[in-house]
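Q: Could you write out the predicted structure for this multi-component system? I'm mainly interested in how the pieces pack against one another.
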Amino acid sequence: MSTVATSQIKLTPEHARPRASVRSRLQDALPKIVLAPSFAITIVFVYGFILWTIYLSFTNSKTFPSYVITGSRAYQRLWGWTFDTDPPSSWYTSITNMGIFGFLYIFICLALGLFLAILLDQKIRGEGVLRPIYLYPMALSFIVTGVAWKWFLDPGLGLEQTLHQWGWTSFHFDWIKNKDFVIYTVVIAGVWQASGFIMAMFLAGLRGIDGEIMKAAQIDGATTFQLYRRIVIPLLRPIFLSAFIVLAHLAIKSYDLVVALTSGGPGGSAWLPSNFMYEYTFKRNEMAVGSASAVIMLMTIVAIIVPYLYSELREKPQ
Amino acid sequence: MLRKLLIGTALASGLAFAAHAEDVKEVQMLHWWTSGGEAAALNVLKQDLAKEGYAWKDVPVAGGGGDPAMVALKAMVAAGNPPTASQMLGYTALDYAAAGKMGDITAIAVKEGWDKVVPAALQKFTVYEGKWVAVPVNVHSVNWLWINKAVMDKIGGTEPKTFDDLIALLDKAKAAGVIPLALGGQNWQEATMFDSVVLSTGGPEFYKKAFNDLDDASLKSDTMKKSFDNLAKLVTYVDPNFSGRDWNLATAMVIKGDALVQVMGDWAKGEFHAANKTPGTDFLCYRFPGTDGSVVYNSDVFGMFDVSDDRKAAQAALATATLSKSFQSAFNVVKGSVPARTDVPDTDFDACGKKGIADLKAANEKGTLFGSLAQGYGAPPAIANAYKDVVTKFVHGQIKTSDEAVTELVKAIDDAR
């Protein structure tokens, strides 16, 4: 490499300098030129449409967008529905489901992913086979996951039916048909799909930990539990951040899983805010209400992610 | 270089202009009748148009069903590139007309005399401010019972004439160990059944006042409360796994004899036909008890967009062919619905179809032809969906009593108005 570099310098004659400077200027500008289209697309189609959605939420848009600002009636209706608990309004159901689903999905995926990664990291035989087995559910779309689990959890078709045929007739598992438990089946399917991917992230993190630190701790007499509790897990902190962000956005944008798995659940009891948004915008022709709910979803994400990112990234420069 | 480019552009636009001067011999059609029988039925229309020299071009929609198609259509229209026509449901055509996107085919309607042959109630969805903007393709009706005849004979049942008869019949089936009522626990199926229950409980006048005129007093009346009580009674006869089931799976339960009866629109007949069952010998079609003489309908229409002048001839040909007697008969025999004009001979239809045609004609004359609220023909989508919410929450227990259901129904409809 170094010989090539020196020979180039030698071969470049004095009079060729202006050409080289055009070229080097082009080279400097090249990243910007290459990035410009995707930057422009992001500005328009992400941030532009966020602004557009916010604008629409203050209009009285029904089937089609209307551009006359009419105030915050859409938000007032959502606010009213937030406290409609008996019988639960669709919006109340959606946001409580979001809380239950979001918390359990992220927490179980992180815990299970870490646990599996630690087990796989014990230098066991056949890791090359086991790892993809856990990882591959992530390669499926939510629709496939949803339909497969729908059949599996259906009492008349899947698990319950099979166990009844095998003779265990007292077995009863009908969560997917139960308005109070249907959201937990969404958690089960979601965790099944994502935990393998989280495991792979943690595994990569574990492999990146310096063996010397581990050996030093073992010489100091740390038990295996202490080793993981005090050294490994704290060192995995950046992986937790990445995994949390991946999971949080998967949780909030979950829409297809609910539709494929439960088609909304009994009496709409499995709705998430994204289902609410789609229903109101496209099926009920209440675009203003749909936009308002989308804005509230965005604010929720911002409220969770921004402080977390800030606290995590602030320590970087030191 | 630049000159070449200019000449090229001039030539190209010249060609385009020349092409535009002549009529486009093509119909662009957005629809979701892509499965077996429906696609075959639509082929008749394609052939009719081909005879007149018009090519048929399907506008593809990813996903297939009605909802993705409507979202795709919205995008096409917003981009100023509407198809010649689109399959539409409920208030969609009127919404587009209000937004000034629909064409005007009144001239054809006058020439063909559609005013007299298309039921007046149906014209509400095809005529906007005196202008024809859409063509009805069929009339479905939802107040039907579909019964497995073998099971019916086994339990010794007869046609139920009143709601109490129906309950007695369901009891018999229960005693015989058959699932009495096949229901899919999705909001539209539950609400479709409730349409029939309300018509049966309150009668035609009440149905119209409550579900077409959205009269407050009727909505909160004791009759409505009684209707919810009757719905609750019916729901006790379904199997525990009903929640979330698709309608055609519920129909399959009746076809296989696992269940006695399904309350469903006449599109269920298509499933019986696909399983090679004949009305009268394998299955029975009765009007929902207490609703004979009235028809609660929904209808598919072809909405005609405001297209450029060179595409208007093709659009006119499509509109005329769609409401022609031959197509109306051929299409509806396959689809399970009845023709959207009352002067089509019923010779090709089966027993249920003949009854449907006669009922539609009678209901049209008596003024007992009502839009189904569950199917979005009683009120605009915001209200229809608010209604479905209340019914499904009542069926699944989020709303516990009929008192509460009535209060919630009034509140939800007010909120969506």
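A: Regarding packing and overall arrangement: Residues 17-56 of chain A form the longest helix (40 residues).
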